[in-house]
Structures are given as C-alpha cells and as structure tokens.
Amino acid sequence: MAPFRSIATAALLVLATSGCAVFRQEAPVQTAAMPGQLEPIHAAAITNNLAVFWVSSNGCTDKDDLTPVVDRMRDGSTITLRRIAEDHCDHPLADGVELQWSFEELGLTPGTRVSINNPYQLPPTT
After folding, report:
1. d(CA 68, CA 6)
2. Does pTM surpass 0.85?
3. pLDDT per residue as tens digits for the range 85-96
4. Which of 4-8, 22-26, 39-43, 114-118 has the lowest average pLDDT?
5. What are the residues facing 84 on neighbouring strands?
6. Average pLDDT of the chain, as a whole number
7. pLDDT at 106 over 60
8. Is 59 contained in some domain?
9. 18 occurs within a structural domain
10. Are the C-beta atoms of residues 87 and 61 closer than 8 Å to each other?
C-alpha cells in the first residue's frame, strides 16, 4: 500500500502545482506596430557602414517608397525593410532596383553588427 500512496501523493502534487500555472496571469507581450508591408527582397548586403537592398520594382520604386525599421539588441541590430508606398507603374524592372541607407541614416554606430529580417524572393525570370 505504501508504493501506491507515494504514487497517489506524487500525482496530487503534480495536479496541485500545474493548476498554479493555469491561474497565473502573464503580462501580455507588447509589439510595436510596423508601418506598411513587409517587403520581400532579392538580395541584401551590409558593407562599409551601408545597408544595401535589391527589391522588385514596376518602374517607379525609389527610396522614399520603403522604410527600414531598426531593432537594436545587445549584440547588434536587425533591419526590417517595409514598403510604405506601392509602385503603380507598369514597366517592371527585371533586376529590381538597388536602394541603400547609410548607418548614419539608420541611427547605427559605424561597425554595428546587422542582420536582415526580410524574406528573400528571386527576381522574375524572363
């Protein structure tokens, strides 16, 4: 009977402590809303304190149509490129368009370690 009592006691202990987690209210995770839409990119490079992106264009995309959102972390920063204005032109550029931002424009210290948070999309084949 002693082994059964030990198992029953252990089961009650598990049930009693698991109930605590159900009733404990966690603080909601807060995320800042980002502007525009996440922009798929053809390529990106970080070089000489510049962030360079190649994105699709219907012929009228320029730097003002996109905005880089920079998230700073302890060991570096992450850039997420967001499209804030659509390109309504009808002359697609097969290779897309190259856009670049200096670290100064991004508010980054020269030499900061940077990663890119955009999905990659191959340019259309002709």
Report:
1. 60
2. no
3. 999 999 999 889
4. 22-26
5. none
6. 80
7. yes
8. yes
9. no
10. yes
**Contacts (Cβ under 8 Å, ≥6 apart) of 94:** 123, 124, 126
98 touches 52 (CB < 8 A): yes
Mean pLDDT of the region 10-14: 42
b/e burial code for range 52-91 (CB count within 10 A of at least 16 → b): ebbbbbeeebeeebbbbbbeeeeeebebbbebeeebeeee
Q: What would the two tokens of residue 44 be?
A: 């990106």
Asked whether residue 43 carries a pLDDT value surpassing 90, the answer given is yes
Tell whether 13 is covered by a domain.
no
Q: Which residues form the domain of 43? A: 37-116
Cα–Cα distance for residue pair 98/34, rounded to 1 Å? 22
Work out how many domains the chain is built from and give that number. 1
Residue 16 lies in a domain: no
